[in-house]
Every structure is written in C-alpha cells, then in structure tokens.
C-alpha cells in the first residue's frame, strides 16, 4: 500500500501526522525485512541452480561416455550424442537464467535496500532528534517564570530556533518518505519483470530446441517397437541356443579344433597349452597359444603383447615327446631353441601337431618362391634354402618393400577394383591388391595367383625386382585389353564381394577380356623377340677385362695319423676328433674349396684348363607353327617380362618344349638370356626347375656352363637336382670344377653338404648351418644388387685365347 504524507500536515505536527509517520515507519521496516529475505532466497536459488547445473553436466558427460562406448551401434551412438548436445544447450540456458536472476533480483534489490532505505533511516534519526529538541524547547518555554524576563527571552529564542530547524527536518523527512514510497514500486516491479522475462527467454529457447529434436524423438519412438520385437526374438533364439548347447555332449569337445589357414583374423589355431619354462626349475605354466602370421605365439593375458615362440614356422619341426613323465607332450624345435608343450588330451596333442605341420606347409606355399608343388619329404636331394629360413637383414620387409612396389606407375591402387593404398600383391602376376581382392585371389589357387603381404612378409631381392618390372599397368593392358570393347564394368571400391569375385574369375580364370593375337601378329612378335635376343647377345660379347682369378689355396685337414682325410664330393673333412669340418669360400674370394683341387700336383691356372662346354649359339629357325609357347620361349631369352606375361595369358605352357631347338624350355632360354628376374618369373609360374633338354641338361647345367652364379644360387634354393647328369655323364659340379669357377663350386658343394647333413640327422632335422645360410644369402643379395661381382668368370673367360 502506498502511503503519502502531506507537507502541510507535517508542519502542524498534528497527531494525524504523527500517526501517519508511525505507520510509514512500520511499513518501511517490514519492507526492508521482506526485501532482505527475498534477496537471501534469490542467492540460495542461484547457488542451488549452479549445483544443479554441475550435476546436470556430469549426467550429460555420462551420456556422452555411454555413446562412445556404443560406437558399434550407430543408432544408440548418434541418438545419445544428439541428446547430450541438446541437454548441454539446456544447461547453457539455465546458466543464462541464473545470471539474469542474479542481476535482476539480487543486485537491483540489494542496491535499493542499501541506498534508499539507508537514506530513509538517516532522515528518521534526524527527525527523531529534532522532535525531541522541539519538545524540550516547548517545555522550557512553558516553565519560564513571568518575573524573570531574561529566562523568558532565552526560552522564546530557543523555541523559535528549534521550530525553524524542525520545519526544515520534517519537510526533508516527509520528502524522503514520499520519494521512497514512489520508488519502491518501480524498483520492485522492474526487478521482477526482468526476472520473468529471463524465464520467458529460457522457456522459448528450450521449446525451440526440443521442437528441432522432436522429429528424431518420434523416429526413435517408432523404432523402439521394432527394437522390442527384435530383442524378444533374440532372447528366444539365445534361449534355444542355450538349451541346445546344454544338451550337447562335450565329452569329445577337443576334437572340434581344426587348422584354418584362411581365418578372417589371421589366427589359424588357438587354445590353452602348458608350456615348460626354460629356467632351472623347468616349471610348467598354462598359456594361451595361437598360430598366426606364420608364427607360434602365446599370451598370459589377452591385453599382453604376444610372446613369439617361433619367428618363422618354416624353420621349425614338431614331434611327440614320450620320454618325459608328463602325458600328451610335444616339442616344437627351431634352429636356435626348442619349446616343450603339453595338451590336455591325446586328441588335442594330435590336433596341435597337425596344425603346426599344416602351418609349416602353408608357410612354404605362401612364402616359398617355387611355383611347383614340390614334395619336400621325397625330394631329399634338393638343397633348398627355404628350409633354413632367411636372415632379416638380407631381405626387405614392411615399408621398404611397400614403398618400392607402390612407386611403380599404376601400383598405388588395387589392380582389380582400384582401392587406394593396397597392402597385398600377387607375386606370380606382379600386381598389387587390396585386402578383399587378395582374399579372392587366394581362393583361386596358387596355380592362378600367389598372394603375399607387402608389409608382413619378407621380400627376396629377385622377387622385389620382378614386382617392379611388371605392375598393374602392364598386366591390365594384357588381361583387360577387350574389357571396354565387351562393355564389362570394372569393380569399384566398396562393391559387393560377389561382384568383385565374379569379375576377377572372368579376368584371370576364364581370361574373358584378353585380346587373342592373329597368326600374323604372333609371327611378328616372335620374330621381333628373336631379333631382340640377338641384339642382347651381341651387346654382352664385349666385356671389360678383369685379372684372372687367383690360384686356389689348399687347406688340408689331418686325422690322427697326420694324413689328410676329405670327401671328394661333399667338401667335408673329418678332423682328428671325428667331427666334420666344412671348407668353403665366400663370394669375396675366388678360391675353390679343398675338395675341388687335387692334392698333388696343385691345380693349374684356369687358363690351362679346357673351356667349358659352350652352349649352342641361339639361331632362329622358321618354326612349323607359331604359338604362345614359342613367344614365351623367345621372350624368356630376350628378358622381356611383359611379353612373357602376355604369352602365359594367351595360354602358353610354362614348360613348353621346343623340339626344333634340342627340346629346350623357356627356363633354359631364360638362363641363356642371363636374367635372374626372368628365371624367377618362370619359377613363380610353376616352371620345372629340373626339366632337361635333349642333351640331358637342366637349367642348373646351363647356368653352370655359362657361369651364371646368381642363377645357380636361385635354382639350388628352388630345389634343383645337382646330382643329375647329362648325356656326357657330367653333373653341374663336374662342369664347375672343370671350368674352375670357384663361386659355383662353393655353392654346389655347400648344397650337397647340407643335403647330406639333413639325411644323416633324420627326417626332423632342419637346415640351420650358419655358414651355409650366410653364403647363400650373400650370393642372393649380390646377384640382385651387385651382379657385376658375379661376372668374374665370364669376364676372364672372354679374354682367353
């Protein structure tokens, strides 16, 4: 209620005025109390709002964390993320509302109470004081005696002055009362109106926000019904599966373990085994073993990094262990260590042994470089290096091979679907592939495509050069020559697997898009290749002179009686203690082993030896008919990998025999051409490394006769039979000794020695002789990266009279 005091009434200082003043003072006192209470409640509301916002923020963060945990469920993740964003906006709106309440209620009303009410109180104090003084003056004036004139005058003067002061003070006091009564209305209403407008803005913003969110909420509401139905169906399925498994007989559960080389996660087999520790106590610990990526590894906990037991399964063997107290034990043996393990039953032991054996075989197929299906158990004469592994520093692995292969034009995308950044390759086709196309290629079989990883597998130098000389561009020009003409659509990244698989089979198996050459085109191609071969041959006739190789030094070994004991064929000496000593040379010197020379007299200089049997000069005869096999034949000699790939695509038999040229094969012609990469390409495409010509000579014979040390090393690694004799009863070793080619003699004797050692040690032995491994790797590395160092014999022989 607004109470106004009349100015005229205040001058009279009537009881009515005094009653009004008393009423005003009580009202102002109550107003101050109410305003103080309202400000305190506002402060409490703001503090509670801030606490609510803090708790709400934690709740929203919990929603976000739940959304992040549900990344595999796109519906839940997207919906929760959207809800969290909306609730965060509401928190921001609440913060704005509380800030406005603080400004409009707390700040404005506190200012009104502190300023205006303080002035009123000060004016009241002065009014009360002057009222008391006026009352005292009136009493003193009334008590002044009539006969005392000076007291009367003094009392009259004091009363006059007091009344004058009272009038000023009371007028100011009334003015302050009236101003306060007028201002209280505006201040209170202004403050509350500002607060209410803040609420109006808050609810408008919330309404707009949730209006935008409403379609999503309705959509989710519609989906919830289907989700409830699906959840009930899944529950029934799970209960049925649970019941089925519960009734299942688990007595033979261990028979369910199978070796799966094409597992999606790369793990061929996994399960628990007990492992015997290598410490002095020989304790047994249960670990989770798995066969993956051509390795045998185990883990103690799932989050632990796998511990590698066998780095390369090609280097190991597996066998039963019946000579220890524990049952169901087996041992995996590598060249450097062995690991004893125990299964839970005999069936599990057999399953693990079979899995390791299958993994070894798979590793040879996938990582071996021989295109043939060699039977390693029966072909004990093959001095193959594959069984001995390969030092990491001698081959490229990971990013090095990847960078070199992807640098070839066209290789940066998958050859079949165009997926960028491929990580796989087909080594017999010379192309790069994405992971999906690589799986399809692997399913075609190794007779169509051999798949290898560009990042996980090791890459031999000759194989890497093969990849760099072909590439996606070259192969697609052959295998997709008529694709556009036939209107066939090439797959794109992201196409369904069955469509990509159908295209790849049509491209490589059915060869539907290849352009078949006419007879005239084939004839021109063959003639051109034969002329190209002659140009290559003539360009290699004149070599720079080199000094002749030094006379081999003899290093006889003595037995107990002081006499030299050695094997004339194997290059192995028996020492006094009965052990065998291997006498070899490395490519850095050019001396023969002790077994290559006669003890007395010393071996003469190579110039006095008869020259090796020369290979027949390549002469092009007009054939009876032109065929893709003939194209492959001359392309191999001309070192043209694209023409060789084209011939194979047109149906050329990789082991085609030229009856007009002493039954020579393309692989023999590749030897004549002198290219290591050409031989590697034919071997990758299943060329027979032991196929002989009419003279009974295989590729190893021809490489030895021509002094091609790198090719000899390659053929020995691929299982060439060095004991095969030609029609003159000469083996490759005989030819190499007659030609005094120390490097080739070293390789042949090393391979023979390694073969004999493996036969003596039994079927489970592994070729782990370090000297044998190192020398073969030196020759392999040199043949690919520095072939001039292996031309010592040819350069010297060209200078002989």
The major pleated sheet works out as: 7 strands, antiparallel
Mean pLDDT: 76
Strand portion: 5-15%
Number of strands: 14
In CATH, what is the homologous superfamily of the largest domain?
Ankyrin repeat-containing domain
* CATH C-level of the largest domain: Mainly Alpha
Tally of separate domains: 4
- How many DSSP helices? 22
Low-confidence stretches: 367-394, 538-616, 762-768, 792-801
Main location: membrane
Organism: Stegastes partitus (bicolor damselfish)
GO molecular function: GTPase activator activity; zinc ion binding
Domain PH: 266-361
Model description:
The chain is an alpha+beta fold and 801 residues long. It folds into 4 domains: 7-243, Substrate Binding Domain Of Dnak, Chain:A, Domain 2 (Up-down Bundle); 259-367, PH-domain like, CATH 2.30.29.30; 398-509, Annexin V, domain 1; 519-548 and 566-798, Alpha Horseshoe (Serine Threonine Protein Phosphatase 5, Tetratricopeptide repeat). Helices cover 53% and strands 8% of the residues. The chain contains 22 helices and 14 strands. The protein has helices at residues 7-12, 15-69, 74-143, 149-246, 346-367, 399-406, 435-444, 461-469, 472-479, 483-486, 497-509, 519-539, 628-637, 641-649, 666-673, 676-684, 699-706, 709-717, 732-738, 742-761, 770-785, 792-798, and strands at residues 267-276, 284-292, 295-299, 307-310, 317-321, 329-333, 338-342, 396-397, 424-426, 431-433, 451-453, 458-459, 572-574, 580-582. A 7-stranded antiparallel sheet has the order 4-3-2-1-7-6-5, with helices on one face. Strands 10-9-11 form a 3-stranded antiparallel sheet. Strands 8-12 form a two-stranded antiparallel sheet. Strand 3 (295-299) and strand 4 (307-310) form a beta hairpin. Helix 13 runs parallel beside helix 15 and helix 19 packs antiparallel against helix 20 (742-761). The longest helix has 98 residues, at 149-246. The termini are far apart. The model is unreliable at 367-394, 538-616, 762-768 and 792-801 (pLDDT under 50). GO terms for molecular function: GTPase activator activity; zinc ion binding. Its main location: membrane. InterPro entries: ACAP1/2/3-like, AH/BAR_dom_sf, Ankyrin_rpt, Ankyrin_rpt-contain_sf, ARFGAP/RecO, ArfGAP_dom, ArfGAP_dom_sf, BAR_dom. It comes from Stegastes partitus. Residues 266-361 form the PH domain.
